[in-house]
Known about the structure:
alpha+beta, 16 helices, five-stranded mixed sheet
Amino acid sequence: xxxxxxxxxxxxxxxxxxxxEPAEIxxxxxxxxxxxxxxxxxxxxxxxxGSTEAQIEQAIAEHSIxxxxxxxxxxxxxxxxxxxxxxxxxxxxxxxGNARRYRExxxxxxxxxxxxxxxxxxxxxxxxxxxxxLFDMLEQNGISTAGQRGVFMLQHASLDRxxxxxxxxxxxxxxxxxxxxxxxxxxxxxxxxxxxxxxxYFTSHGPANLADFVGWSGLTMSDARAGLRAVxxxxxxxxxxxxxxxxxxxxxxxxxxxxxxxxxxxxxxxLGYRDRxxxxxxxxxxxxxxxxxxxxxxTIVAGGQIVGTWKRxxxxxxxxxxxxxxxxxxxxxxxxxxxxxxxxxAYLGLAVEIGAG
Length: 357
């Protein structure tokens, strides 16, 4: 599977990155996982050699990159230019899919409409408020935010194209009104949006198959198939084990001289596919996501394969980066990981110490 892994590294801008701005990276990928805020920023930074965390944070502060609930109803980073059409395509399906959870939380239609109105009004005009501040506002207006009610109301307003997240303040994300942060854009037809999403996915994540696209996008199989069909002529089809995979025609021939990379948890190289066996031996799957609990650890990638996990400890003037390999790392891979850790430290602006695994 080295061919698939090498091509994915290239197309995801991890190996031989070719873009220059944070928003370009996010737009190229279509959207990237954003549950872990520091990790999501590093997902962008590692694809922009020489960039810093402050530069990624600035792009978020300027709203060229937006963090919001999007694909599969989970938090993602998305380029501002893509936010409206993606939400128009994906938001209604996610809201409909939440119907049962809304009932469990006693969030009826009237409550969701009212919370939408209150959240939009509180943020309209350039206000930037944290989640606790918005929860206090809802409570003061007689709407309980107990349990998960508050989070689901924020998500609903986000999927409804009213609000989105900005920078973090005091460990809490701030929220802004979409109309204040994101320029207006013309609506595009649904079939065009499906085609655009499919082309973005297979160009940046290929080689990938239709099931991978369905798993990543959360679209129905019929919608995903329609999107792929519309752009199939712009892609190259390869066959592995009798199954069709699509990739961009610009993908270079695979090679063995692949660097070692320190990827954050939830990176698209891992989560962008339903079947991860091309880059991860299934026997190690529990080591990157223990118990299948949805929490993905940062990973060490060598030769395109995930060979371990790593963790960081931030101290006053340094970051301790500790590898936890599945098996002993060769001298070459250990040296490559040390170089990747140094790149991470430079991104943070901190000295690096390699911890004992």
